TrEMBL record:
Protein name: Extracellular solute-binding protein family 3
Organism superkingdom: Bacteria
SMART domains, sorted: PBPb
Keyword Signal attached: yes
Residue ranges annotated for the Solute-binding protein family 3/N-terminal domain, each copy included: 69-300
GO BP terms: amino acid transport
UniProt keyword Plastid, yes or no: no
Keywords per UniProt: Signal, Transport
InterPro entries the record matches: Bact_solute-bind_prot3, Solute-binding_3/MltF_N
Family note: Belongs to the bacterial solute-binding protein 3 family.
One GO term describing the cellular component: outer membrane-bounded periplasmic space
Length: 329
């Protein structure tokens, strides 16, 4: 059951209430008042819902409070999600991460909370999280069932297909055309797993290269060391849009699968999970997520004012209407 209501002056809040056994003896009025109380508590209207006391903190929030800093894992070239524009880290996912930082500040009552960014790759992001080198990563990390064994994931903030980018004159239109050819993807990604599975199942004999990061993978395709770069559809559209000669490339191929991005944090930290999801649900159900989407996918973005031209899909529209943390694999 979901209880939603207006909070404060113009803001909105939502609390998810676990459904328990119904009691026939419980008066309808009491049940209604209970729901209202829960909703007001989530919104911060009830008097005791103020900044958390230091001695009540646990997990990531306690670490952040004690250190006086929140450490974000950021990407260097996951355009337009999390990337360095020459001055700072920007992007759709980075904007979500900074909304979460603002919520941490309010929850802890620490207006001067510092933010430290550490650049991560697809290969090292999880070890750095588990080793407490970063507290939160909101970039282009796929939520998979397998990864739930080692890390926790927020409600999803983006759904996409896995496809490939290749040169327009390559003659490649689908994955069967990659048989016997050199193909590149990024090491440590779910795309690498999907590509290797396809290679084995269809006996395509592809020569698969695993690049350190997305930029290196795109460069390998562009330089001719690989005929195609297999990756998340919005990522390859980002590289196509930012290349000096975007018309030289096409994004093609029947999707290998559909996946979702989410923020990643340490397992077993329910208070931090609740905070992160509170931010994401509020953004998606208020219309702010759609505004962010338009800003980063359908309008000019820094540093060169390119437009990714990747309109909001029906899948993402449905995700925003019904926030959830379901992996799609």
């Amino acid at each position: 059951m979901k209880v939603a209501g207006r909070c404060g002056e113009g803001s909105e809040g939502m609390v998810r209430v676990a459904r328990g056994p119904r009691s026939a003896a419980m008066p309808h009025l009491v049940r209604g008042m209970h729901r209202v109380l829960l909703a007001l508590t989530a919104c911060g209207v009830v008097a005791f819902a103020g900044p958390a006391r230091a001695d009540e903190l646990t997990g990531t929030l306690k670490k952040i409070h004690d250190d006086g800093v929140v450490v974000l894992g950021v990407r260097e070239a996951s355009i337009p999600f999390s990337y360095f524009d020459g001055k700072r880290t920007v992007g759709y996912s980075q904007a979500i991460a900074m909304q979460i930082v603002d919520e941490i500040r309010k929850t802890l009552g620490m207006t001067q909370l510092r933010v430290h960014e550490i650049t991560v790759t697809s290969s090292n992001r999880t070890p750095m999280l588990l080793n407490n080198q970063i507290d939160l990563e909101c970039g282009s990390t796929t939520h998979t069932v397998e990864r739930e064994n080692v890390a926790a994931f927020s409600d999803s903030f983006f759904q996409y297909a896995v496809r490939m980018i290749t040169r327009k004159n390559s003659g490649i239109t689908d994955f069967r055309d990659l048989a016997g050819k050199p193909v590149v993807t990024t090491a440590g990604t779910s795309d690498e797993r999907l590509l290797r599975s396809l290679n084995t199942e269809k006996q395509l004999n592809m020569r698969i290269m695993s690049a350190r990061d997305h930029q290196e993978a795109f460069s390998a395709m562009k330089d001719g060391r690989a005929v195609a770069f297999v990756m998340d559809e919005p990522i390859v559209y980002g590289f196509k849009a930012t290349d000096p000669h975007p018309d030289d490339f096409i994004v093609t191929g029947t999707p290998l699968g559909y996946e979702v991005y989410a923020c990643m944090f340490r397992k077993g930290d329910e208070s931090f999970r609740a905070l992160v999801n509170r931010v994401i649900v509020r953004s998606q159900t208020s219309g702010d997520a759609e505004r962010l989407y338009r800003q980063w996918f359908t309008q000019p973005i820094p540093p060169r004012g390119i437009n990714v031209n990747f309109p909001l899909s029906e899948q993402n529209r449905a995700l925003f209407a019904h926030p959830n943390d379901h992996a799609l694999d």
